[in-house]
Amino acid sequence: IGGKLLLRTTVSTTRTDTTNDDWVDLTNAAASSTWYYVYAYNDAGVSWDIKFDENAPNASDTSSNANGDLIYRQFSGVWYRCLQAVRNDSGGDLIKFYSVGNTVIYDTWTTSLSAGTATVFTDLSLATAVPLVSTRAIIILEFTVPAANHQVHVRANGSSSTGGHRYDVWDDDTVEVLCDTDATQIIEYKLATATSLDVHVKGYINNC
Length: 208
Known about the structure:
Elements: E1 3-4, E2 35-43, E3 47-53, E4 72-75, E5 78-87, E6 93-94, E7 97-100, E8 103-116, E9 122-125, E10 134-143, E11 150-156, E12 165-169, E13 174-180, E14 186-191, E15 197-206
Antiparallel strand pairs: 1-6, 2-3, 2-5, 4-5, 7-8, 8-15, 9-14, 10-13, 10-15, 11-12, 11-14
């Protein structure tokens, strides 16, 4: 999936919520370097329509419950079901990705850390590569200084685990791992025996 997120040519361009400036429509082009959430909704009981909005879902069902997977959002009394998240790059193009089931894989990795050297748990923002509807990030740990054995610890933001998940790499300089994510879009890392680390985001697990 790729291209410009500028107009909706195959669905209605009528803005349902006239007070919400986040809708992407004929008069409100998409901003660059911005996450948009793709919603489906029933258009006055006649047909299904699609909307793009900067606001992530905030309810698990149409009774406004917030416990469980957040997949709905209400605008002006109408419930919208989140389907996917998309992001524009700095040039206004959609970042290309592939989606199978709830797994999203980018056509090109996003680098979230270059030559990191922290030896105590340190926050690492994945906000440019992982949306609010993500439950896990698919990350590539790349050790930039070759050594016989690399060790790095990765954990979810705010985890009480003193060691996190430790990854040892003996024969290769890269390893692919999953790490839990939350609404902060932050994970934590620290180096053990390695001296320098790059972190690339390959994709994420979609909660919608």
